[in-house]
Amino acid sequence: MIYDIFMPALSSTMTEGKIVSWEKQPGDKVEKGETVVVVESDKADMDVESFYSGYLATILVPAGSQAPVGDAIAYIAETEAEIEEAKKKASQAQGGNNVTSTPATTPEVKKEVETSPQPVATTANTETSPSNTSENNGRIIASPRAKKLAKEFKVDLATIKGSGVNGRITAEDVEKAVGKAPSVTTSTPSLPTITSSIPPQITPTPALGNAAPINNLAGETVPFNTLQQAVVRNMVASLHVPTFQVSYDITTDALDGLYRKIKTKGVTMTALLAKAVAVTLQKHPIMSATYTEGGIKYNDSINIAVAVAMPDGGLITPVIKNAAQIDIYSLARSWKDLVDRARAKQLQPDEYSTGTFTLSNLGMFGVSSFTAILPPGQGSILAIGGTRPAVVASKDGLFGVKNQMTVTITCDHRIIYGADAASFLKDLANLIENDPHSLTL
Q1: DSSP per-residue string spanning 282-324
Q2: What angle do CA 305, 113, 119 make, to 5 degrees?
Q3: Residues with catalytic annotation?
Q4: Short-list 369, 357, 287, 282, CA closest to 321
Q5: Rounded distance, CA 84 to CA 438, Å?
Q6: For residue 116, which of 156, 171, 74 has the smallest C-alpha distance?
Q7: Which member of 64, 107, 117, 174 lies 3.0 to 4.6 Å from 102 by CB, making a disulfide possible if both were Cys?
Q8: Which of 51-65, 109-123, 144-158, 339-353 bottoms out in mean pLDDT, i.e. has the lowest?
Q9: DSSP string computed for 332-401
Q10: d(Cα 338, Cα 315) in Å, to the nearest integer?
């Protein structure tokens, strides 16, 4: 019996995937549920497990190449005797296989295969591979190459301290553990944490934009990576939605004061803003509703998505689920974990695709105000500008200098109207200006 390994659909927006690395080679024995290949989807790198036991007979799509979702990328033979039959089938299929070939032997591809973070993730109906799960869950994070070297050198991964993101064990860590000189590869760059010394009124999480500087690329055309391709598709889809924008100036002095008191407990301004928005959304369910052909879908939970720039380009929106119900300290811990794993490409699909309302911040770049593009499937997105001193008149006619930020909401005009957006922003401003301490209750 010859079985196909298909390019899986690892997210609702994925149309094709890129092979990061093959964990098995032709002729290797494969057990059901064992990781065979690591695939880069439009949002993360994921381990793909085999549905069958047998032998990896032949690989149709090499590492570094792409294939559409649903296409066969390899064949598994049930017995050794059927390997040759699988190879013949492969030679017949290669002519019609729609594979975008990228040379896997170039230094750039080698770097990606050997150093890209590999999270635990599986296709539907498969079990999680315990060796790739976060240490926070009592398991070990290790790249596929690190696992392969550990098996080759007979090293217990539990005895190795990882140097990668979130303690992830890299191939270099294994080589050092056995006293072998590290191979010449580029290690994963250290990534910034979400806490920093920037002013408290500015959210320390990058939002829209390309985080990676472009050097010495004049005149060259750089292909989109899969995450950037997903962003392109989503932005084009958004053009078909009729939207409008409403802006509001919010005084942040009280919120800044609260932030200074609780930031030592790990609470970031991002967490405070997400909490404030979630609490306000409880009074305005239409703002987190979704348009459908049958009418308005009111979501049963308030999930706040926040735009985060990825180091290698593109952006992703980790989701803080049920943000209105959880306390600010748990929310802050959850957000930090989401950002760390987002940048390590370790998020599961439901951790970036279930948002009902999105925040986007460019204040850390000195931007005073901007409008954000509405994500597909959501009714609103709030763009947050930087805090700046402004002369403000009080109700009794006195003038003073206060810190203010301009927020601009973009809404789906099919289900949300101007009065809805204005009312939401008014209540959000009232909470931030007059009662921010309620966010800690």
Answers
A1: TT-GGGG-EEETTEEE--SS--EEE-EE-TTS-EE--EETTTT
A2: 40
A3: 413
A4: 357
A5: 69
A6: 171
A7: 64
A8: 109-123
A9: HHHHHHHHHHHHTT---GGGTS--SEEEEE-GGGT------PPPTT-SEEEEE---EEEEEE-TTS-EEE
A10: 14
